[in-house]
């Protein structure tokens, strides 16, 4: 597995403010997180989860990590 190039994480300027790319990745991660959350709720799969809030936090962190890992070379 190749080592990610950390030079790709340049700060972005938005209306005169510098914004970390991680903020943008976290905002984009809301979309797949919401879809997975709705699927888990719709099919009642949360009954297998012991601590729902902790599971949701872990799921969101995984979504952010996946977007950063797979999207770094394409979007930034």
| Helix content percent band | 55-70%
Order of helices and strands: EEHHH
H/I helix tally:
3
How far do the termini sit from each other?
A: 19 Å
Q: Sum up the overall morphology in one term.
A: elongated
Give the strand line-up of the largest sheet: 1-2
**Count of distinct strands:** 2
Strand content: 5-15%
Describe the structure.
- The chain is mostly helical and 76 residues long.
- Helix content is 59%, strand content 8%.
- It has helices at 21-28, 30-42, 52-75; strands at 12-14, 17-19.
- Strands 1-2 form a two-stranded antiparallel ribbon.
- The chain is elongated, with a radius of gyration of 15 Å.
- The two termini are 19 Å apart.
Helix and strand topology:
Blueprint: E1 12-14, E2 17-19, H1 21-28, H2 30-42, H3 52-75
Antiparallel strand pairs: 1-2
Helix pairs in contact: 2-3
């Amino acid at each position: 597995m190749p080592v990610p190039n950390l030079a790709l994480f340049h700060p972005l300027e938005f209306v005169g403010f510098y914004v970390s790319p991680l903020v943008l990745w976290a905002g984009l991660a809301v979309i797949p997180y919401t879809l997975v959350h709705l699927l888990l709720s719709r099919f009642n799969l949360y009954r297998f989860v012991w601590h729902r809030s902790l599971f949701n936090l872990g799921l969101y962190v995984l979504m952010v990590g996946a977007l950063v890992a797979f999207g770094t070379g394409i979007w930034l």
